[in-house]
Amino acid sequence: MQVPFLDLKAQYLSIKDEIQAALNKVLDQTAFAGGPFVAQFEKEFAEFCQVEHCVGVGSGTDALWLALLALGVGPGDEVITVPDTFIATAEAISYCGATPVFVDVDEKTYNMDPNKLEECIKTHNSKLKTQNSLKAIIPVHLFGQTADMDPILEIAKKYGLSVVEDACQAHGALYKGKPAGSIGAAGCFSFYPGKNLGAYGEAGAVTTNNAELASKMRMIRDHGQEKKYYHGCIGWNARMDGFQGAVLNVKLKHLRAWNEARRTNAAKYNALLDDADGIITPQEMDYAKHVYHIYAIRTKNRDELILRLGEKGVNCGIHYPVPVHLQNAYASLGLKPGSFPVAEKVASEFVSLPMFAELTEEQIRYTADMVKTLALKS
Ligand SMILES: Cc1ncc(COP(=O)(O)O)c(C=O)c1O
Predict the structure, then answer these.
(1) Strand partners of residue 352
(2) C-alpha 320 – ligand 1 centre gap (Å)
(3) Residues contacting ligand 1 via CB (< 6 Å)
(4) Tens digits of per-residue pLDDT, 138-177?
(5) Burial call 328-363: b when 16+ CB within 10 Å, e when fewer
(6) How many CA atoms lie within 13 A of 42 on its CB side?
(7) How far is Cα 200 from Cα 221, in angstroms, rounded to an integer?
(8) Is the confidence at residue 297, as pLDDT, over 60?
């Protein structure tokens, strides 16, 4: 049997007519850059996230970058985030001219450990002449489960820091009933094709309840324009294109059902792998509704397991093999192995199993059987 890691075609075929009709409308109206389809999506995604504003942009990386810029993060500033994330979280900080400061993750959730956050801020501040350079915190809702936001927000408030949610993997996830993207000053989403809500190209969005922040981001994404050819600030081209807006409008209507299907699939994996020796399955916390963008197990013999699963037709991934502080791109920070022991440990054990809404019962059973047979017993 073949089990793909992700099957974008299966999803496309299930909504083909709707998608083609939507794309034809964009063609008919030649609404290629920004325009009514993007505006409609912004309105609907803001409603979905229960926020006042949504600003459609070119990618999740743009979303993070624009949110930080609009919050005033710039050269000489520092922004706290986690090492176990896609590098874009840190890149957005760097592209503001700021420096990422990492805090370790929790071993159960793989998200920012709130218990280590305050310690990180205190240590950091004690090394600085002023306490002004820390500006923001970016908790990442890794794999589709939100970080434990209440203690993070409380600490942020105490130290006067803004919180930007990296919700790029968490469309529709909930924290104590609140949608991801509605909790911090801003929520940043990626609609990269493989995401729970994926465009048919590159796209992203920022959600916020802050009208001023939303209007700054709208300006920055469009060359700082206040009106056509009048530029109030130096911006960039970070607009969402019309085709992506139209595709996302169609797909947003299906997102709740697709997320439920992912949750059902995760529950099946959990039940089948429950007694598997040497395997740690993901945990859904009491405060969270997990949307399983990634279903990651942990095991000691990860590389060999992935290789052997591949030979049996089960295609897996690793998210992510090298924590950001140990990437060559960030060598200048001088952080060595051992700096963030939990992040490093879990990154060396993660195996992402096939996960998408259309996964069949047979594929799930086969994958779980193969994992049990091929994993090293503890
Ligand atoms: C946690 C996280 N942050 C940021 C991004 C960047 O999003 P994009 O690829 O749309 O720029 C991604 C996407 O992979 C992500 O998973």
Answers:
(1) 296, 317
(2) 12
(3) 59-61, 85-86, 88-89, 140, 166, 168-169, 190, 192, 204
(4) 999 999 999 999 999 999 999 999 999 999 999 999 999 9
(5) eebeebebeeebbebbbebbebbbbbbbbbbbeeeb
(6) 22
(7) 20
(8) yes
Is the model more confident about 294 or about 133? 294
User: Rounded to an integer, what distance in angstroms lies between the CA atom of residue 56 and that of residue 44?
Assistant: 11
CA of 357 to the centre of ligand 1 (A): 20
- The 3 state secondary structure assigned to 324-344 is HHHCHHHHHHCCCCCCCHHHH
Q: Assign 240 a pLDDT band (cuts: 50, 70, 90).
A: very high
Q: For residue range 22-48, what is the model confidence (pLDDT) as tens digits?
A: 999 999 999 999 899 999 999 999 999
d(CA 323, CA 346): 10
- The mean pLDDT of 169-196, rounded to a whole number, is 98
Predicted local distance difference test score (pLDDT) of residue 125:
76
Ligand 1 atom nearest residue 192's Cα: 10
For 306, phi then psi, to 5°, come to -65, -40
Quote the ligand 1 centre to 271 CA distance (angstroms): 30
Q: What DSSP letter does each residue of 36-52 carry, written as one string?
A: HHHHHHHHHHHHHTT-S
